[in-house]
User: Fold this.
Amino acid sequence: MFCEECRKNKAVVFLKLAVNNKVREMHLCPACAARKGMGFGLEAGAFNISEIVGNMSGYFKDFLPQERKTLRCRACGLKYSEFKERGLLGCPDCYSSFEPQLTELMDRIHGASQHCGRVYSGGPSPKLSRAETTRRLEELRAALKEAVEKEDFETAARLRDAMRGLEGRHG
Assistant:
């Protein structure tokens, strides 16, 4: 098999990359691999895995969608790529500038992008829209029905109290 770049030399570097659900295979000769920043020391017979991983990091940028390469915060100018490197946002406006990317990231890390745990009870309750209140009430009613069927009356009482609390907001 010949090198995909020069089409002259024998391919000895075989890369199979899966990035963003796209699989790409590359077959390169040592010289073309070195030109792409993937010189693995094959010419000298040395093989260092840290060099392979380190040199390939720049190659993955080719697979990023164009909007992620140049995406910047409107307010502070922070690049999305800088956020990915440091893990820190630059200002409050970064949340709206990078909203789709942050939502995707939270989904991957936490399994959801919306908080569904306990809330702080020391302050005022957050304002909910009527639609959100209705949705939550429907979920509580279904859970209450299931708890009563299982004769789990302690859980049913907690669910009933939670429903009363929600109904009191928009009652």
